[in-house]
Each structure stands twice: as structure tokens, then as C-alpha cells.
Amino acid sequence: MNINKLAQKTYYKFSFVEGNQHIANEYALKCILRIIEAFNVKDVLEIGIGIGCIADTVLEYSQNIKYTATEANEFCLNAIKENVSQIKRVELYSNLAEIPEDIFFDLIIIDGTDESLGKLKRLCKNETIIFLEGGRPIQVQILRSFFLKAFYTQMISYNKNPNYGPFSSEDWCGGGQLIFPNPNFKMKFFYWKERIATYIKRKYRKKK
Ligand SMILES: C[S@@+](CC[C@H](N)C(=O)[O-])C[C@H]1O[C@@H](n2cnc3c(N)ncnc32)[C@H](O)[C@@H]1O
């Protein structure tokens, strides 16, 4: 299935699930799949799996992805058992500090808070990519202070939220924040394309 269609399908599914007020926005799901496809991501860490909207999307996208996540909330830990069809593929920890020191990730998705964010650097490979769902300015600032050579851009949408789901269809569909801590040539190319797209989308949004 096309990645945009898959993101729409999962967002629609989670639009009718109990406790969905904090799920990832639909455009963030599309961005995550686009990153995974472009960089052939195999090892994903999600900080704050919540009720499982991102995890369900990614696990359905590929059988070859190893998925690790953190979550401490009791309601969410129960909810993911129901919501994530392939929950058996998820390695769960309560927080970042619990993750063994010898595991490294291609993509780290941040969609929750973690007091041990400082531990994130040790989970990175040289070419790890970091994506933060939504705005998250404080976490972006902290991460950029860890990775001084990082390339950072927002990823925003041309569209408003769908008329189903927890977010108002009057508001722009959020997207997220993309950080390449140690960008290689391909990452720099991806970054510039996103930066230009974000600039154009901002102008378009202002006119609307
Ligand atoms: C933005 S949410 C994560 C959403 C998740 N990535 C998803 O797409 O389903 C961040 C945190 O909020 C908490 N949370 C999310 N949904 C909740 C709910 N319905 N009730 C209580 N806490 C919730 C969880 O601890 C979660 O890690």
C-alpha cells in the first residue's frame, strides 16, 4: 500500500479508539513513513508509544522493522494490546534509562516526555535520524544542544486535519520536527528539499 494511504488508514482507525486525544497527527505519520522509506530504516525507537498509533502504522508498513518503545502510563500499556495488531513485535521499556546500552537505532521518534532525554545520545548510530511529532520546542532545543552539527527542519502540511479524529478540522495538520545529528550527503539533500517545501507551505498557509 502507498505510504500516504497507509497513514490515512491508520489515522482513521485510531480516530475511533478510546483515549485518542494525544495520537500523532496524520501528516506526522506520513512523514515518518517517508523517512523510513527514504533511508531504509530497520531499527526504530519510539519514546512514548501512547495508545500505539505510530507503532501500528510503522509495523504494518514493514515486517522487517525492529520496533522498540517506551511507555509508563498504565492506560496506554493496556490500550496498545488492543490497538496495535502486531504488538508482539514491540520491545517495551518504561523509559529511556532502562534501554540496554548496546542497542542503537536508525530512527528515534519522540512523542512523549522522558526525564532521561540526556541518555538519547548513547542510543544513536553515526547516521541516526530523529523525528519529533508536533512542535516540541523544548525537546528540539535540548537535542540540538547535544548535536551541534545537526541539520534541523520542520515538516509541515498543506492540509488541515481530517474531519474525523481528535483534532479540529479548522487547524493545520501538524507534522513534526526532523533532526539529522550527523547528516551525510543523502540526508543533506532530503533536508534541503524539506526546508524549501516548508518555506513554500508557510507562504501558502499565510495566504489562506
Ligand atoms: C503524545 S502521546 C503519544 C502518542 C502515541 N505516539 C500515539 O501515536 O498513539 C504522549 C504520552 O501521553 C500519554 N498518553 C497518551 N494517551 C493517553 C491517554 N489516553 N491517557 C493517558 N495518558 C496518555 C502517554 O504516556 C504517552 O507516552
From TrEMBL:
Database matches in Gene3D superfamilies: Vaccinia Virus protein VP39
EC code: 2.1.-.-
Statement: the UniProt record of this protein carries the keyword Transferase: yes
Entry-linked InterPro entries: SAM-dependent_MTases_sf
GO-annotated biological processes: methylation
Residues spanning the signal sequence: none
Protein name, entry field: Class I SAM-dependent methyltransferase
Upper classification of the organism: Bacteria, Pseudomonadati, Bacteroidota, Flavobacteriia, Flavobacteriales
Alphabetically ordered keywords of this record: Methyltransferase, Transferase
Molecular function per GO: methyltransferase activity
